[in-house]
Amino acid sequence: MRKKVLIAIGASLCLLAAGGWLHRSGGQGSKEYGRLGLLLPDGTDFSDPRVTVWLDAASEEGLDVVPVTDSSFLRPLFGRQEYAGLIVPDSVHEQASDLLVSAIHNYVTTGGKLMLVYDAGTKSLQGAYPGERSRFSDLAGVDYALYQALGDKTIESSDVNGTISAMDQLRIPPGKYYPFLAVAEGGDAGQQTMAQLRRYQYGSLEYPSFVTAGAYSGQVLLHSSEGTVAGHHPVGKGLVLFVNLPLGYLKRQTDGLPLHAFLKFFAVNLLDLPYLTSVPDGVGGIVLDWHVDSNAAVKALQEMNHWTILQQGPYSIDITAGPDTYTFGDGKGFDVLHKAVSRDLVQQYLQLGEEIGSHGGWIHNYFSAHADTDKPADLEQFLELNKNALEQVTGKTVVEYAAPNGNQPEWVTHWLESHGFVAYYYTGDTGMGPTQDYLGGRRAGKNIWAFPIAHMDRAASFEEMSAEDVSYGVIQNWLERMTDFVVDEKQARLIYFHPPGILSFHQVVNSWLEKTAQLKAQGRFRWYTMTQMAHFLNSRKNAEWRVGERDNGVLLEMKSAETLAHLAWSFPKKRFGKPEAIRGAAAVVEEGDAWLVVSGDGNQLEVEARMLNR
């Protein structure tokens, strides 16, 4: 066995940009496969949030993305063939020289794959819009950055629309776009039903984009009243995905779904790259988060004890533990320390394997109303009281959290992480899976994970859907579509509810649970708690891996300082034959249109896969 030398994750980003892993002396497998380059101006600080949002998103989506400076691209150390594709991001690369623009054109026309984002390269090095249109308009497939003609109307905000088929290709979950069911009848024709990206509670969601002129020359994915928002087309021997949205900026402003969606689409749909799945064993699932915030939940929970819901799980059950709910002394709290009925319910859930978490700070509505206005030092005591009371009753450390009314200021996230919490429910980044979110333009924590809510148009909880007059049939369809989504995409999503608000949906929930029970019995679906997923994702971050070309195929190599157990890689079947483990333990299963490689409990693994086409 030839010696393999790896560069540790802590190595300098300059080395990462130059190749990431030291090449083995034998030559086999030395050529990188599947690596994406993130093109950045010389001198860029790689810890700049405008850069880290891309690297974090890539890590969470299980993709290999490394920074590449302009000078490295113009004078590549190992050659451009090292990169399966090149990303020119928004915000950080607004300015570009004519030389760089020409080099990118040459890269694409000679076979390169490019993801061109929003304002990338729209200005000269002097900060002006050169010419009548972007120098990348021919690559983008449409004219844009029309500053000479439009002036301050060059960029406009508008609703963003696409067909249901396009939304599915982008892995946008049902409900984040609406309608999520095809209205037209007749098979494929129904997939042309137009849908709009939507926002929790407010519905209408407007995004800024450059006004475009002329017909798009390729396949349009998204559009607005101002023109083309996203599309892809061949250029010369290469291809270009043009995304006319400020993806990095949006993620820094708690809307990370567009960045994640287009990054995954570029890598998997257009380039057929393998990726590391974000769920244990590659089995998708749902975090069902119960919010218990007052004594009104007691009767509802007792009634739910007779439902089939407790036959499945585990679930995240997050509790406001104090004696009051609205204000001091109102006596309307769940009061786990003094009410036997509340303690008994908590003990029952513990025995069933549910995860008990903290819901806000002791007095649900008071804490929510003051979290943004009062000094953190005056409110921390309520977080402490809630955590301590639940730990006294459960005998377990509380490590997950749900914000009351979704109010999660930055100081709360920092307090949670400093007190051992690993996960929290989140009303930002809606529609996404677990993520290490950005608040105030920077990453909120190091090892604490946000769990954004899934929503159906403007509503997320059952009582909100009731207030919106959504029919039972539509709600059931949404629940079933969400379940199919996590199964098919091998991802996790969070759905939440309040016990009193779910009671009138008993039959809807029972029908949904019949579906989840069948899928779970087939090994295709799981219930997860926030805590389980956060621990898994933190362990997943310790895995180092690369895909290198080898003979007529590729070699996937991975190692971890801890364990590779339950990590799973997906290989597209149209590109690869059935992978085979040549070192370490792994199960290889056929999963839809992909091969799924599920690692055993070792800390090293090598897998070979034959390439079906070049």
Concise account of the structure shown:
This protein has 614 residues and is an alpha/beta fold. It is 29% helix and 25% strand.
How would you describe the overall organization of this protein?
This protein is α/β, with parallel strands linked by helices. It has four domains: 31-158 and 205-275, Class I glutamine amidotransferase (GATase) domain (Rossmann fold, 3-Layer(aba) Sandwich); 161-195, no CATH class; 286-456 and 526-536, Alpha-Beta Barrel (TIM Barrel), CATH 3.20.20.370; 542-610, Immunoglobulin-like. The chain contains 19 helices and 31 strands. Strands 15, 16, 17, 18, 19, 22, 23 and 24 form an eight-stranded parallel sheet that branches. Helix 16 runs parallel beside helix 18. The chain is globular, with a radius of gyration of 25 Å.
Kindly report the CATH topology of the largest domain. Rossmann fold
The total domain count is 4
Shape category? globular
Estimate the strand proportion.
15-25%
What's the CATH superfamily of the largest domain, by name?
Class I glutamine amidotransferase (GATase) domain
Most strands sheet = 8 strands, parallel
**Radius of gyration, taken over Cα atoms and rounded to an integer in Å:** 25 Å
Mean pLDDT: 92
Poorly predicted segments: 1-30, 184-190
Any guess at the CATH architecture of the largest domain? Answer: 3-Layer(aba) Sandwich
Helical stretch tally: 19
**What percent of the residues sit in helical stretches (DSSP H or I)?**
25-40%
